[in-house]
């Protein structure tokens, strides 16, 4: 195998890895925006960055995944050469195609983003509900006031529940329906159902729910930061370990092999 073939194979591998790193880098930036609270006003795919808005075709996710896996497999086969290289390249292509993350549709990404925003809005919503209910407001009036004061997607959900309460629907059924239709709001719904059935003041329970959710968000943020530190060492290992083997170990092994062959 010539150096040009080896360079071509290595280039194909680097292109495939760069594509995956770009996607992961964009996701990391998006998670950082969500974690720092700066991503509420940023859409998941802005119109000026969506490929269809610029006139370029949008390939399905399975096509991009298959192309990346085939390119990586061909690069590995060209780099190694021979039947062993073909075998390794085929196994690499199959493994990448199987284990690469599946691209989600725009509707699924919007749904995930909406759930994340509901989770972030839950502590503030619980505190506002606690304040309204502590001021002797009715459940319908409290939910309507909070729904009008918070942004989407929480506000429209609360306004819909407030309309059901104003029409005379049982509060327990309204809270249960809210938790079933929107899983991120299930803790809030369970808290309101318990207080409605027991007759206990809901303000204390809602305040405890808000503080507990904020503490959980802080723990999750610390976990993400520690995980990011661990994952940051993976590219360094993938880059420096092969370089160390090629520069430091391979010449020594080749020199020892040549001396042993001359001695024989």
From TrEMBL:
Segments passing through the bilayer: 66-94, 229-254
Protein's membrane topology: Multi-pass membrane protein
Taxonomy, superkingdom: Bacteria
Entry keyword Transmembrane: yes
Pfam families for the chain: T2SSF
Species for this entry: Kitasatospora putterlickiae
Xref: InterPro entries: T2SS_GspF_dom
Listed name of the protein: Type II secretion system protein GspF domain-containing protein
Residue ranges constituting the Type II secretion system protein GspF domain according to the UniProt record: 127-249
This protein's UniProt keywords: Cell membrane, Membrane, Transmembrane, Transmembrane helix
Compartments (UniProt record): Cell membrane
